[in-house]
Design goal:
Lipocalin, myosin II binding, cytoplasm, four-stranded antiparallel beta sheet, exocytosis, 303 residues
């Protein structure tokens, strides 16, 4: 038979009919089950069987199909069954093609290629005329090279991370209708107010909570401090005035002592909360280390 050679490894093969439409692959083999026993029925079944006839040298060969072959360097269109190279296109000389697909675009089909130098190129079929050559993304991550694929209507997909899919388009028509094609993954809901966390709930809950300076040392948590330990109270002079002043100082001292006791009690509660936060952070660090050791040697597709 005829030997066809292309530069680089072959990436994609497809077949077109005489009108240039893509021929779908045959996915169901032809089989004949439950052949009838009647002789006449057997003859009819034999007539229905497909017969392959190879054309002779004197018989005229009509081209009824085209084979599109894309390699890392070039693309060729072969006419069948004569196996003549009808069209040929050198895709790249300094780089190589990572992915090549036959896709439908604007009621037609074309050959879409993604090169290692970051260029996205499209060619018409079966004539292989260049339609598009645009710089997009150079090969910096092997995950992109393994997962990049073209889809119909001028779109392409690849994994930008183990859990994120990047979607792009190189068609103006698709770009104009992009807003209508976007879907909503989440329903916006107002965030409810956080409930009050008790000491034991914060200790055994394990969740981290955000605290600010006002919440730790403000008046709402520690109480209002006394502005002075003694206060001058004007009164009548003499012994009565001294007694009144002394009683006022004693009252202020008693109130200041009571305020200090309350502040010390609240500081003790704050210290207990801080210890609970330290214990919760230590527990979270321990569990995170265990999870890291558990999934250290697993790949992204094993999750």
């Amino acid at each position: 038979g005829t030997i066809l050679r292309l530069k680089g490894a072959i990436l994609r093969m497809a077949f077109l009919d005489t009108t240039g439409s893509l021929v779908p692959p045959a996915h169901e083999p032809w089989r004949e089950h439950n052949v009838p026993e009647d002789k006449d029925e057997k003859e009819k079944a034999k007539k229905r069987r497909p017969v392959s006839v190879s054309p002779s040298s004197s018989q005229e060969i009509s081209e009824n199909q085209y084979a599109v072959i894309c390699s890392e360097k070039q693309a060729k269109v072969i006419s069948l069954p004569s196996q003549n190279c009808t069209y040929k296109q050198n895709i790249t000389e300094t780089s190589f093609v990572l992915r090549g697909d036959i896709v439908s675009l604007s009621n037609s089909i074309c050959l879409a290629c993604f090169c290692a130098n970051g260029h996205i190129m499209t060619f018409s079929l079966p004539s292989l005329r260049p339609l598009l050559d645009v710089y997009y993304l150079p090969l910096t991550n092997m995950r992109i090279a393994r997962t990049f694929c073209f889809t119909n209507n001028g779109q392409a997909l690849y994994l930008v991370s183990p859990t994120e899919i990047q979607r792009l388009t190189y068609s103006q028509e698709t770009c104009e209708n992009l807003q209508e094609m976007l879907g909503e993954l989440f329903t916006p809901v107002e965030t409810p107010e956080a409930p009050n966390r008790g000491f034991f709930k914060g200790l055994f809950g394990g969740g981290a909570q955000s605290l600010d300076r006002e919440e730790l040392f403000g008046e709402s948590a520690s109480g209002k401090a006394s502005r002075s330990l003694a206060q001058h109270i004007p009164g009548p002079g003499g012994i009565e005035g001294v007694k009144g002043a002394a009683s006022g100082v004693v009252g202020e001292l008693a109130r200041a002592r009571l305020a200090l006791d309350e502040r010390g009690q609240k500081l003790g509660e704050l210290e207990e909360k801080t210890a609970a936060m330290l214990y919760s952070a230590d527990s979270f660090s321990k569990h995170a280390h265990e999870m890291m050791l558990k999934y250290k040697d697993k790949k992204w597709y094993q999750f």
